[in-house]
Amino acid sequence: MNQIDELRKEIDRIDSEIVRQLNKRIEVVLRIKECKKENQVPVEDVAREESILSNLKLGELDEEFVRDIYDVIFSYSKSKQRERQ
Questions:
Q1: Using one digit for the tens of pLDDT, what is the confidence trace for 23-72?
Q2: Residue 2 to residues 5, 10, 14, Cα–Cα distance (Å)
Q3: Which of 15, 23, 43, 47 could disulfide-pair with 81, CB 3.0 to 4.6 Å?
Q4: pTM above 0.85?
Q5: Where are the alpha helices (DSSP H) in the chain?
Q6: At what angle do helices 46-55 and 63-82 cross, to 10 degrees?
Q7: Comparing 31 with 84, which gets the higher pLDDT?
Q8: Per-domain residue ranges for the chain?
C-alpha cells in the first residue's frame, strides 16, 4: 500500500470520528431543547454562538472556514430544537 492510500485511510477514520462527534453534539442539543422548552427559553442564542466561536482553537484553519462550518452546525442544531416531537 502506498503512502497516499495510508493517508486516505487516516482521513476516513477522521471523517468517521467527525460524524460520530456531530451525532453526540446533536444528542446534547436535543437535551438542551427539553430544558429550553421547560424554562420557556428561546431556541436562538447569538451570544452563546459567538462564545463558542471565540473559544475554538483554530490551529491551521482559517477563521472564515470555521465560521462557515459552525454556521451550518448552528443552523442544523436550531432546526432540531424547533422540531416538534
A1: 999 999 999 999 999 999 999 999 999 999 999 999 999 999 999 999 99
A2: 5, 13, 19
A3: 43
A4: yes
A5: 3-39, 46-55, 63-82
A6: 140
A7: 31
A8: 3-82
Helices 3-39, 63-82: inter-axial angle, 10-degree rounding: 50
Q: Is the pLDDT of residue 10 over 90?
A: yes
Neighbours of 77 (CB within 10 A): 21
Contacts of 44 (CB under 8 A, 6+ apart): 78
- CATH level 2 (architecture), domain 3-82: Up-down Bundle (1.20)
Question: Amino acid letter at 60?
Answer: E
Query: Of 85, 80, 73, nearest to 29 (Cα)?
Result: 80
Cell numbers describing residue 49: 454562538
Tell me the CA distances in angstroms from 29 to 3, 9, 21, 23, 67, one per residue in order: 39, 30, 12, 10, 19
Q: Of residues 84 and 33, which shows the higher confidence score?
A: 33
Local structure of residue 81 (DSSP, 8 states)? H
**70 and 53 Cβ atoms separated by less than 8 Å:** yes
